[in-house]
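Hi, here's the filled form for the chain we discussed.

Project: internal
Contact: R.S.
Residues: 208
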Amino acid sequence: MKIKCLIIILILISAINIATASNPYGKIYTYDVYYNDKLLPGEEIAKPFLNIGEPFKVKLEMKLNQTSTLFVQVCSLGGNFFEVIDGPSEFEKMKYMKSLDPGTHVFEWTIIPTDEWAGGSIPINIFYQINLPDEDEPAVNGEFTVAYCTISNEYYKGEATASETQSTPEQPSSENSTSPASAPAFSLVTAILALAFVFLKLSHSRER
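And the returned structure, exactly as it came back:
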């Protein structure tokens, strides 16, 4: 019985060692992921509520421990659910970099949701693949979710434009523009007072 238990333990230890040896994370690469410049530790996923056209950022910091060829892609479930407005690649398009030196390589995309998935929730993923020099087969590839986005039916208005911010100070001037309309009434009162003054003066002179 003890021999059987010992054999089982040895098999489990061997399986753990094989799994560790076949896992390239840490040996070939490590990475960090950010949503709007906030680090997402471990398997944490951002869960933003976004309007149509509201920009947000996803960033991948990939640290390569040896010279490698790297493929990266920001993607989702297919379709035109998002649009990249700034970044190293278009949405659902692969970025390919050959013979990258060891070190940290940063990839950041500014993305907006379209109205294709308005009223629903959809993930933003990053796909990566690493090939070692002169190797056609990947040493590792994977895909993970950065954010699970809920898209509203409202459109993003953004910050107020310069013309909008300047419209408020102009309101007093529009109020002042109505003041000339009161000028005729003021002139009429002045004329009546002048006539009354003349009438009183004439009456006073007749009494003399």
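Let me know if anything looks off before we file it.
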